[in-house]
Amino acid sequence: MHVFLPLSARCLKVIPVMCILFLHTDNSPAPNKFRLILASNRDEYYQRPTQQAHFWDKDPTVVGGRDLEPGREGGSWLALSTQGRIAVLLNVKGENIQDPSQNTGRGFIVADFVTNKQHETHEEYLEKLSKNGHKYNPFNFISIVISSKEIKVQQYSNASGCKSQPENVGSGARGWGNSIPDRPFCKVNAGISRFKDIVEAYGKTEDKSILVQELLSLLKWNKSHLPDPELRRRLINQTPSIVEKNSTVFVNIPEQGYGTRTHSIILIDGQGKVDFMEWTMKEPIDPFNPTWISVNHTCQLEEC
Q1: What percent of the chain has pLDDT over 70?
Q2: For every residue of 20-65, which 3-state class applies, written as one string?
Q3: What does the pLDDT look like over 193-245, one tens digit per residue?
Q4: Domain boundaries in the chain?
Q5: CA 241 – CA 245 distance, rounded (Å)
Q6: Which of 27, 112, 116, 288 is 20 to 30 A from 232 (CA-CA)?
Q7: Is the backbone peptide bond immediately before 227 cis, with ω within 30 degrees of 0?
Q8: Are 94 and 111 in contact (CB under 8 A)?
């Protein structure tokens, strides 16, 4: 039996802490190791309509999920282009928007980057984004461009206290959550440590099935990571229970109609072969007894 929450659930005083991302890149991997390993959770309201990861009709070089929320249709939180682009968007909680008169949907930041309809370089796109950052609610944007020679990763945040310009991110294992990059939540730091161990132990192509299961276990990690002063500060008006439920990698607040509803894993080997895997709750979502469905899209990067 499905249990449906009323639309008014979104009006309850819950501050969502949307999404977590772990990323490993290696510009000079051994022949049997992955060049890129990405694992991410999307946390969102269960009633927000979403299209599962697929190759986009208007741009079949792009694979990713899409937002179907009225007024936000076509946006995305994570997507990949076979032209060698990956984009991930995470919101930043506990910040005021820089220009309250503006509230542009952030999901198109991802879509615009991976489709690259303006034929902009990585740097040109980020320069334009940084000039218009005041138009959006606070976010962290992780952009990746992959060629045969290198994987270039940059981070940009429009939140207060962050640098006004995009920053290069070095190779190795990294993680992001919903605070500014210089002040990660405890669950992000703990997740990075576990993610590094997984990559070191199973980051070979012949261990792909074990690697995927270990990454999925990380994304379903429900251990609380408290105390966390930064999380408490950003959820200042929330109850201790809500803070605790947001201190886990896998967020589960079914009574509020909110939580982790999608897991994404991307693997790219030395020859540019991509596995884009997604596990998501089947809609309409029963938050107390969800059904998970999965897809695995494979493709080849054009420049590798």
Answers
A1: 92
A2: EEEEEECCCCCCCECCEEEEEEEEEECCCCEEEEEEECCEEEEEEE
A3: 999 999 999 999 999 999 999 999 999 999 999 999 999 999 998 999 999 99
A4: 7-300
A5: 6
A6: 288
A7: yes
A8: no
